[in-house]
Structure formats: C-alpha cells, structure tokens
C-alpha cells in the first residue's frame, strides 16, 4: 500500500485534499491511503522521520520561518526517493520547487481533474520506472506494494497471497510470473512458498519451518524438493545463522 502525507497550514485545505485523494483512490482502485495530515511542518517532519512515506503533498508558503522548501530540503538530505508534490497559489515558486526533485506542482485552488491526472501519472511512474525496484505491481488494478514489507508469498489454488508487515494481499497470478519480477533475496523454499530472505529470523530445519520477524508470528514451510538449495542460499546470507537449527547438515 502506498502511504500519502499531507501538509498545509490551512486545515480546510488539508481536509478537502484528503477527501479528493480518497475519491481518486476509490475510483481507480489504487491501493493507497492518506496516513497522516497536519498543519505543522515540524509534526510532518517528525512523522516522516519515523514512518515509511511514499508521497508527500506539501504547501510552500506557511507564513512562518519554515517554508515548504525548508521541509523538502530536510527530507532530501536523507530521502531521495519520496515523491514530493508541491501545492501553492504562488506560481512564481514553480522554478524553485523543481530543485527538490519534485514530481509535480499543483496550483491552488487544486482542481480535482488536475490532482487526478497527477496521481495517475505518479502510479504509472512507480509501476514502470526502473529506479523503483522496491515496489512490486501485483496486478493490473494499481495494487502496488513495497517488496521490503513482504515476509513470504503463498500459492493458494489459483491465487497468490502476499504476507506483509501490515496486511495480506491476494491476487490471481502465477508463481512463475511473480518470481521473475522479484529480486534475488526472494527464494523458493516450497512448491507453495517463496520467502524473503531479508525478513527471516529463524529456521527450524528438523520441522521444516521458517519464522519471520521476532514478534510477527509469521511462519511458512520448507519443502523437501527445495530444502537443500534453500538452506545453501540461506547460509550464504548469514543474517540468521545463529537462529538456525544446528541439527541440519
């Protein structure tokens, strides 16, 4: 799921923008959500610094010592990938805005049609840009998830179920097609499972069980056909060596 954050010094604008985005997400079946909104630049920065945020819609003129450009500058020092969309009634800010690797500039008052066009282009950019390798498009319905959030993928009949750190996603697709899209840290461990090596916290080789993240209560199985190759791949990673069942040879 894509996470959106809104920051504007006018609460009425924030509320209206949030409703417009929700409408666009629903109309186009976009798997996205406004996870945080604020009239405070500091609260917005605090949230971004402690949460994963994909898209920020940011006002420029806050009538204070801190401008939207200051916020964008602070973000870009540590985060080059977040999409920033500036909003402002001052068109003279446009040229300056694009110095911050800005995806778009929306003039106020923001028209629904213009916002919709921007969001659809953004979704297309995430889906097709070679630079966005951390995102995985599950189907043709704008369902896009962060690959890093996936624990494992399960084949369940005609469906694939993606278990992530926030929720599960279901899609009708083939294991082979999805497997080709995944980076090397995703390894087939069973005829019905693909595991994210980066999220594994323990392996009980005798029980053929893989556990993910200490408090996640997430588990999947190792199949006999895949066990030898999977365990070799796992040992090369070395990130869970101390948590592996020592009885496996």
Q: Describe it for me?
A:
- The protein has 249 residues and is of the alpha/beta class.
- It folds into two domains: 2-132, Response regulator (Rossmann fold), CATH 3.40.50.2300; 148-243, OB fold (Dihydrolipoamide Acetyltransferase, E2P) (Beta Barrel).
- It is built from seven helices and 15 strands.
- The chain has helices at residues 11-27, 41-50, 68-76, 94-97, 112-128, 175-181, 227-237; strands at 2-7, 32-38, 55-59, 83-88, 104-107, 135-137, 144-146, 150-156, 159-164, 168-172, 186-190, 193-196, 200-204, 209-212, 218-221.
- Strands 2-1-3-4-5 form a five-stranded parallel sheet, sandwiched between helices. A five-stranded antiparallel sheet has the order 10-9-8-12-11.
- Strand 4, helix 4 and strand 5 (104-107) form a beta-alpha-beta unit.
- Helix 2 (41-50) runs parallel beside helix 3 (68-76).
- The longest helix is centred in the first third of the chain and has 17 residues, at 11-27.
- It starts with a strand and ends in a 12-residue tail after the last helix.
Chart the SSEs and their pairings.
Elements: E1 2-7, H1 11-27, E2 32-38, H2 41-50, E3 55-59, H3 68-76, E4 83-88, H4 94-97, E5 104-107, H5 112-128, E6 135-137, E7 144-146, E8 150-156, E9 159-164, E10 168-172, H6 175-181, E11 186-190, E12 193-196, E13 200-204, E14 209-212, E15 218-221, H7 227-237
Helix pairs in contact: 2-3
Features:
249 residues; alpha/beta; Rossmann fold; OB fold (Dihydrolipoamide Acetyltransferase, E2P); 2 domains; 5-stranded parallel β-sheet; elongated
């Amino acid at each position: 799921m894509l996470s959106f954050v809104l920051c504007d010094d006018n609460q009425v604008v924030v509320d209206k923008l949030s409703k417009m985005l929700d409408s666009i997400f629903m109309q186009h079946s976009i798997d996205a959500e406004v996870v945080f909104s604020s009239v405070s630049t500091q609260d917005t920065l605090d949230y971004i610094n402690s949460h994963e945020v994909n898209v920020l819609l940011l006002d420029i003129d806050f009538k204070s010592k801190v401008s939207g450009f200051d916020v964008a500058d602070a973000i870009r020092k540590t985060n080059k990938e977040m999409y920033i969309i500036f909003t402002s009634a001052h068109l003279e800010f446009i040229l300056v805005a694009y110095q911050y690797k800005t995806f778009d500039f929306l003039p106020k008052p923001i028209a629904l049609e213009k916002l919709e066009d921007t969001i659809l282009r953004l979704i297309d950019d995430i889906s097709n840009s070679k630079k966005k390798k951390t995102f995985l498009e599950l189907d043709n319905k704008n369902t896009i998830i962060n690959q890093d959030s996936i624990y494992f993928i399960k084949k369940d009949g005609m469906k694939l179920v993606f278990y992530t750190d926030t929720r599960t996603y279901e899609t009708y697709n083939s294991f082979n097609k999805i497997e080709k899209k995944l980076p090397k840290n995703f390894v087939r461990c069973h005829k019905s499972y693909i595991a994210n090596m980066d999220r594994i916290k323990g392996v009980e080789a005798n029980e053929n069980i893989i556990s993910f993240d200490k408090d996640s209560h997430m588990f999947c199985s190792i199949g006999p056909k895949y066990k030898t190759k999977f365990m070799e791949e796992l040992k090369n990673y070395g990130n869970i060596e101390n948590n592996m069942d020592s009885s496996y040879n």
